[in-house]
């Protein structure tokens, strides 16, 4: 026993090199880009970047969005907490010179809003054969320029007061167009500062969709002008709300990072908090022949409810410019609907007596119709039950798969079924980061592949991507960041990098460890994966 332990210590000790006393579980890589680029060539030679003289030079198109990003990255790259002692690299024969300017070449006019299928390609050249000793970031869209800036910042390795960057060529683009993170501001209110930190970290992992599960049964923090009573009576307090200015702040902060903000207003279930502010919206539940004072899902038999939804969603879609709206539709309990005699009568008229899935279909169909008719002509997502229950869906609906995270066979069957029906599909089942346990849990996130199901190429092409989810029952501003990050970074790599480059967690571990220290060094409270150390531990 003792000998085995000593042997293990020796093996691990050998990895971290002589002179080191601690035994971290892994030695971080240096200057590797996370998520892994599609194509990268790195040489042993390097240039030195000196913060005092370094600058970006705009050589193509420009706009406010780009200029803001450049000044932001000057701060991010040279953030205070990446000081490490000089390793003396500037004296070795691999030293090629100083990199004082990086050309930022944006080849087309900036677009005004990010969108599904936006162009995110970029190239980086540092001391490349065709441009020796020079640096450039080249992109066809401002979104690609953002991704390139982020990658460039990862190439820098702190070396005393300056930074090393190896001679490098990168050509990169995402594997999937929808790379999202879901946050929940109903179970606990999340202040704008937490949402902004989340967006910062998302951009540092090249996520491009914030799925904002803004309301649910527990609270209705969205402040509506057309229906002020919804938050007036449905939020935790009159201060636990998101005003229209707050929403605009989140949307523009995200825009500046190339991130879409997709709100979710989940109906007909998950709506308890909607009830007080909108009498008649929810179904009255009955007991022993009379209403028992409790309420269930939205009452599909009340025509007024569709007017209400239309007005509410008209406002919502004006505040959130993204084309897509998440309409929820999960976990509709039929218990209350079943208890209500007026609904039974209504169903009799529809010739669907006893068929509550058909009642749900009736509601969802009307909801999708009215959302499709809004002036903004939105597209929408629904959770998988809407598909599972056989609701007829418009052919451009995106079906969001979330169930059976512990049973990938079932998840893969669902992926096969939904795509066989021709619907675009988004995967979250295997990336419920709110479900926590002791030890290393990220290998299972890394082994989940949205296209790993048995299906044709046409089916696989219907996978638009995935989302990591952080449900808020046990999460508020105190643990949102540490519980989400850097575990969400693992999902980010699965959604950005090539499928065959993201199959080996052992290969990813040193790069992930470097990335975790990088984020910590930038000032975010991201948790560790195992025993290790970062320069940024010393504050
Ligand atoms: C970058 O250059 C350094 C110094 O020559 C070298 O030790 C390191 O292996 C290079 N990094 C990569 C990823 O090639
Ligand atoms: C219900 O069924 C009856 C008898 O088959 C039919 O006359 C009526 O039109 C149906 N109503 C609806 C709403 O489909
Ligand atoms: C959906 O159907 C419409 C009309 O039938 C068609 O024009 C459109 O191309 C279809 N879209 C998709 C995504 O299949
Ligand atoms: C994949 O699906 C095809 C067609 O449904 C079936 O014939 C085949 O056995 C499946 N393969 C696996 C590995 O499940």
UniProtKB/TrEMBL annotation:
Residues 33-153 form the Beta-hexosaminidase eukaryotic type N-terminal domain. Residues 1-17 form the signal peptide. GO terms for biological process: carbohydrate metabolic process; ganglioside catabolic process; glycosaminoglycan metabolic process. InterPro entries: Beta_hexosaminidase_sua/sub, GH, Glyco_hydro_20_cat, Hex-like_dom2, HEX_eukaryotic_N. This is Beta-hexosaminidase. Keywords: Disulfide bond, Glycoprotein, Glycosidase, Hydrolase, Signal. It catalyses: Hydrolysis of terminal non-reducing N-acetyl-D-hexosamine residues in N-acetyl-beta-D-hexosaminides. Residues 176-498 form the Glycoside hydrolase family 20 catalytic domain. One of its GO terms (molecular function) is beta-N-acetylhexosaminidase activity. The keyword Oxidoreductase does not apply. One of its GO terms (cellular component) is membrane. Belongs to the glycosyl hydrolase 20 family. Its EC number is 3.2.1.52. The keyword Cell inner membrane does not apply. It is an enzyme of class 3 (hydrolase). Pfam families: Glyco_hydro_20, Glycohydro_20b2. Disulfide bonds join 63-110, 285-336, 517-534. The active site is at 331 (proton donor).
């Amino acid at each position: 026993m003792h000998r085995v332990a000593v042997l293990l210590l020796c093996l691990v000790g050998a990895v971290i090199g002589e002179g080191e006393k601690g035994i971290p579980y892994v030695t971080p890589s240096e200057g590797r880009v996370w998520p892994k680029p599609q194509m990268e060539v790195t040489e042993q030679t390097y240039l030195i970047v000196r913060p005092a003289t370094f600058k970006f030079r705009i050589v193509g198109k420009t706009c406010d969005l780009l200029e803001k990003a450049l000044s932001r990255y000057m701060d991010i790259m040279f953030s205070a907490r990446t000081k490490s002692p000089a390793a003396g690299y500037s004296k070795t024969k691999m030293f090629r010179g100083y990199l004082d300017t990086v050309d930022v070449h944006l080849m087309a006019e900036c677009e005004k809003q990010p969108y599904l299928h936006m162009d995110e390609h970029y190239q980086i050249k540092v001391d490349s054969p065709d441009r020796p000793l020079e640096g450039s970031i080249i992109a066809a869209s401002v979104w690609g320029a953002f991704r390139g800036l982020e990658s460039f910042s990862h190439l820098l390795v702190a070396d005393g007061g300056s930074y090393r960057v190896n001679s490098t060529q990168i050509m990169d683009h995402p594997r999937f167009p929808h790379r999202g993170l879901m946050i929940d501001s109903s179970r606990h209110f999340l202040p704008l500062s937490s949402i902004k930190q989340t967006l910062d970290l998302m951009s540092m992992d090249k996520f491009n969709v914030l799925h904002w599960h803004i309301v649910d049964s527990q609270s209705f923090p969205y402040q509506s002008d057309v229906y002020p009573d919804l938050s007036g009576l449905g939020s935790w307090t009159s201060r636990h709300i998101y005003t229209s200015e707050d929403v605009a702040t989140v949307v523009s902060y995200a825009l500046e990072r190339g991130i879409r903000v997709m709100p979710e207003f989940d109906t007909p279930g998950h709506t308890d908090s909607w009830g007080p502010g909108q009498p008649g919206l929810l179904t009255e539940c009955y007991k022993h022949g009379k209403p028992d004072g409790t309420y269930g899902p939205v009452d599909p038999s009340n025509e007024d409810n569709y007017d209400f939804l239309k007005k509410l969603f008209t406002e919502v879609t004006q505040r959130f410019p993204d084309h897509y709206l998440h309409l929820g539709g999960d976990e509709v309990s039929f218990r209350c609907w079943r208890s209500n005699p007026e609904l039974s009568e209504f169903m009799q008229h529809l010739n669907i007596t006893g068929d509550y899935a058909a009642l749900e279909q009736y509601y969802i169909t009307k909801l999708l119709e009215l959302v499709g008719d809004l002036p903004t002509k939105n597209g929408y997502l629904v959770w998988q039950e809407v598909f599972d229950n056989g609701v007829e869906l418009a052919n451009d609906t995106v079906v969001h798969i979330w169930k059976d995270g512990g049973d990938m066979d079932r998840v893969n069957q669902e992926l096969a079924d939904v795509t066989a029906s021709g619907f675009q599909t988004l995967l979250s089942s295997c990336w419920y980061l709110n479900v926590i346990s002791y030890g290393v849990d990220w290998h299972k996130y890394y082994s989940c592949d949205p296209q790993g199901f048995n299906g044709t190429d046409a089916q696989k092409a219907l996978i638009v991507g995935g989302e990591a989810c952080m449900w808020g029952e046990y999460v508020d501003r105190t643990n949102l960041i540490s519980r989400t990050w850097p575990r969400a970074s693992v999902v980010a790599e699965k959604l950005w990098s090539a499928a065959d480059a993201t199959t080996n967690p052992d290969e990813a571990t040193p790069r992930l460890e470097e990335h975790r220290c990088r984020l910590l060094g930038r000032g975010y409270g991201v948790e560790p994966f195992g025993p290790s150390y970062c320069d940024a531990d010393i504050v």
